[in-house]
Design goal:
118 residues; alpha+beta; Nuclear Transport Factor 2, Chain: A; six-stranded mixed beta sheet
């Protein structure tokens, strides 16, 4: 795992919204699964904090990553701990549009149905 992805996923797995937002451009667009896109750091922070409050925790495992001059992508698995203490692991792919070292577009392809299933 590249150091950049490790730092990003460490921030997410710590549920550290401020650290996560430090990776994003001020006007970034964030889309998590099939949820509507969220625009701007403040709105993204509210959405991410809300999600962090709905889970007990997460642990990301990066399987492969790709990069180009203005994009980064990865494939992995994330193990979520539910608020009841049970866990579920699901695959994900992230596609990021970069502006220098900051993320301008963050798109997560994931099915969260198993996470919130009864």
């Amino acid at each position: 795992m590249t150091d950049w992805w490790k730092r990003l996923f460490d921030a997410i797995d710590r549920k550290d919204t401020a650290a996560f937002l430090s990776f994003l451009a001020e006007d970034a667009v964030f889309q998590f699964g099939n949820a509507p896109p969220v625009r701007g750091r403040a709105a993204i922070g509210a959405a991410v904090s809300g999600f962090f409050g709905a889970i007990g925790g997460s642990q990301h495992q990066l399987l492969r990553d790709f990069s180009g001059p203005d994009a980064r992508a990865c494939q992995g698995e994330v193990s979520y701990t539910r608020l009841d203490g049970s866990t579920v692991t699901v695959p994900f792919a992230n596609v990021l549009v970069m502006r220098g070292e900051l993320v301008a577009g963050y798109h997560i392809y994931i099915d969260l149905t198993p996470l919130f299933a009864a």
